[in-house]
Amino acid sequence: MYVRHLQVTDFRSWEYADLELEPGPAVLVGQNGQGKTNLVEALGYAATLGSHRVATDAPLIRHGCARAIVRTAVVNEGRELTIELEITAGKANRARVNRGPVPRTRDVLGILRTVLFAPEDLALVRGDPGERRRFLDELLVLRTPRYAGVRADYDRVLRQRNALLKSSGHARRAGSGGGDALGTLDVWDGHLARYGAELLAARLDLVADLGPHLTAAYAGVAPESRPATIRYRSGIAESFPAEYGTTGRADMEVLTDALLAAMAAHRDQELDRGVSLVGPHRDELELTLDAFPAKGYASHGESWSFALALRLASYELLRDDGNEPVLVLDDVFAELDRRRRERLAEVSVAAEQVLVTAAVPEDVPSELAGARYLVSDGEVHRE
Asked: Which of 161, 170, 230, 250 is found 20 to 30 A from 337 (Cα to Cα)?
């Protein structure tokens, strides 16, 4: 898989940019603030419908503009598909594939797969659990696009259930009973358990598949360090077999029953607090170094190594699935020592396509000396 063409209009700092690309390494060189990252961010958006830098779409639209447009032409096994995304502030985004509209924006997922490594990835190790849950879910959707719908359904039910918990809790504290609302809550428990079990099962299976790649990738970038492992930790872990998330395959029926039982056990607490205390939205991906949690125990170099290993493991997992992604390395070589640079370059040079951004050419290993694009003063052109 590779991107043949990228075009953006009113995206971030870019009024307009147009790049013709080809397989192999491509390096975008320019000083900080010139828009290199904005271009690879647009590419990542076409792959995931999200940004690795911000949580909402509004900052992606150039200041003073009503919308931004991202167009990409993707070649996969000789077949070319064109994606066009229209990002509009305060309104539903729209998408086209080969110039034809699609019913839902998420229908474009799976056409382009990217694995992006950026300085922000340090938050995967040092940040809160939400960063790691997001990492898992984005990889899950890259691997199996239909889970975008599962995640959207789960989030919708979670919002509605939380609203009902809040109103029912107020009614109970006011002494008005709220019996009808509590009966309705049982219905939403069922919906949350069903979608939650599907998302949880997928995450558990993903972690089981990703784990060996992670351990190998970390050993490759930091051979002098302690062994690295990952494990999925769920609030209902005591209700399913210990091997889930390591080697076992998750059972939907077991997980659904476990979620329903946990919601029943926490009902009073949830009503008091007005939020759902059980489900995949509360879970954690544990990162460990020789049985110690990486967060809080890992050195700065070990944290960078773990973040890099998570991305390299994702890349290898997608390759194993037969869907080699485009590898995107956003201004990371300047952050890495010689060993980590060499290991990352070794993996990158074997990719069908790798896009690299750097402030100066000297930051890029010689192995990745492919096509070079200069980014400056609102323009990008090939040398």
From this structure: 230
As beta bridge partners, residue 353 has 24
Select from 304, 323, 342 the last residue of a domain. Answer: 323
Helix/strand/coil for 244: strand
Do 256 and 229 lie in one domain? The reply is yes
Do 8 and 62 lie in one domain? The reply is yes
112's tokens: 């382009």
Residue 141 is encoded by which pair of tokens? 């959707």
Measured distance CA(206)–CA(152) in Å, rounded? 18
Domain residues for the domain of 192 are: 122-323
Q: What's at 22, amino acid-wise?
A: E
Using CA atoms, how far apart are residues 72 and 86, in angstroms rounded to an integer? 12
Question: Are 365 and 376 within 8 A, CB to CB?
Answer: no
Taking residues 159-179, what's their average pLDDT?
A: 79
Residues 161 and 263 in one domain: yes
CATH number (domain holding residue 300) = 1.20.1050.90
Which of 118, 156, 136 shows the shortest CA–CA distance to 210? 136
Q: Are residues 89 and 153 in the same domain?
A: no
User: 106 pLDDT band (50/70/90 cuts)?
Assistant: very high
**pLDDT the model gives residue 269:** 93
Q: How far is Cα 371 from Cα 174, in angstroms, rounded to an integer? A: 68
Q: Is 103 helix (H, G, I), strand (E, B) or coil?
A: coil
The pLDDT of residue 377 is 85
- Name the strand (E) or helix (H) holding 286: strand 284-289
